[in-house]
Amino acid sequence: MGPSWLQWLLKHLLCLPGLAIATVLLLLALGVRGRRRRRPGEPPLINGLIPFFGVSFQMQKNTFKRIQDYQKKYGNIFTLQINGNYFTFVLDPFQYPLVLKNSKQFNFSKFGNEIGRKLFLLPKGTPYMMKTIKGSYKYLQSDFLDSSSYNLMQNLQRIMKEQLLQAKNGEINQLYKFCTSIIFEATYLTLYGKDPGTNSGEVIHELMEDFVKFDNKFLSLLSPLPTLSLRAIRNIQKKLIQYFSSERISKMQEISEVVRVRQILLEKFTEFQDYERGAHHFAFLWASVSNTIPASFWTVYYLLQHPEAVAVLRDEIDYLLQSTGQKKEPDFNILFTREQLDGLVYLESIINETLRLTSVSSNIRCNKEDITLNLGNGEVNLRKGDTTIIYPPLLHYDPEIFEQPEEFKFDRFVEDGKKKTTFFKRGQELPYFLIPFGSGISKCPGRFLAVLQIKQLVILLFSYFDVELIEDKSQQFKNSRMFFGIQTPQSDVSFRYKLRC
């Protein structure tokens, strides 16, 4: 070990508890013995200084900046060692289809199943079983979404009416806390229905608090190192799963079609324990709100920083209200169909621009075999068992594609009054230009519901209230999600809202 090793051990290792120290020493020993070498024809390999861990610690500090630096040094395809695994990044957007449209050689299920097992304790099921359960996702798409859209709007209006209608002279709240409370309760009620118990409000609040604790630390469940907080997060994980018992769900009223179908399917497979069914429900709820909450926060935050965007948005909403014969009455009773919401091109552009700026979602595939990719300007060999990653944040911040990519431009996805769907790089139309929800087999099935949630929240908030930020400071990303979902803010921000009508 060189001096850098001794410095690392003194700085990090001695601060860990005994079990963690033993684990680190074992992993280091394995890493030293199994240090990998690059074969001819393979992408550049960055093992990092620390065996087994590779570049893990550098990546955690600022994933985007680190990958950007590697791209400048090694080009558009390279392999990183991270916690004993090897990840090959494919960064040229014209080469994305080589991976995303080749499910025979690039497999998502292995990675998805491992994540589900670690984060939500999902049981291992047969391919038929998992395909059957995934069939319920059709109720989150197309015409099946209409009833959920209606129920969601009703729940949002009732919750906001209860919480906000007193704000005639102005109230102050924390924006992230506000979005969490509104989105979580409205989504839970829309999907899982109403608890007939007298203390249902308290139960939802307690569930939300546990959910937030889990969401703040969920990535620690993927770490190879035992940490001091791991026991606490595992206890919360188990508590959340136990909440979704079959007995509780059977008592819920006005349950959504998608959850009702999922419950029937889960009951059909008798080899599942009730605890394992609860794990599926917990994972479904987490997927429904974990990224919608920060996406809602950033959408409102960027709007409040750009009054010109708010003005255009309100004009668009007012026009839709007039065309549908509705008025903004103090009773919070407006309703739009999903098709009408889809016609709000500026609102959709605002949300797309927010997702472009804040999404760190990556498309992750496991190499099922040794693969030779024809890149057009040469070939590259990928190893069986490695992981291949499409990392869209670099695409989303490419100045050749998006002028001034660090800036929020509310009309970036509007052209001649219609949705803009073509973007170019090197003079060629891009096969993908915005990928916040994954792609192909890993594309988020709840993306339509998520966008509906954001649209409805924004419409209600800016139609009925004058809203302003109190703290005039630039909000930074927490950089804690690495390759998963929407960035969360480093800190909350205060805002003031006052009833308009």
TrEMBL record:
Keywords: Endoplasmic reticulum, Heme, Iron, Lipid metabolism, Membrane, Metal-binding, Oxidoreductase, Steroid metabolism, Transmembrane, Transmembrane helix
Pathway the protein acts in: Lipid metabolism; bile acid biosynthesis
GO biological process annotation, one example: cholesterol homeostasis
Binding annotation for heme: C444
Keyword Metal-binding listed: yes
Main location, first listed in the record: endoplasmic reticulum
One Pfam family per UniProt: p450
Gene Ontology MF terms: heme binding; iron ion binding; oxysterol 7-alpha-hydroxylase activity
GO CC terms of this entry: endoplasmic reticulum membrane
Keyword Zinc: no
Annotated localization: Endoplasmic reticulum membrane
SUPFAM superfamilies tied to this protein: Cytochrome P450 (SSF48264)
Family: Belongs to the cytochrome P450 family.
Stated name of the protein: Cytochrome P450 family 7 subfamily B member 1
Name of the encoding gene: LOC114054111
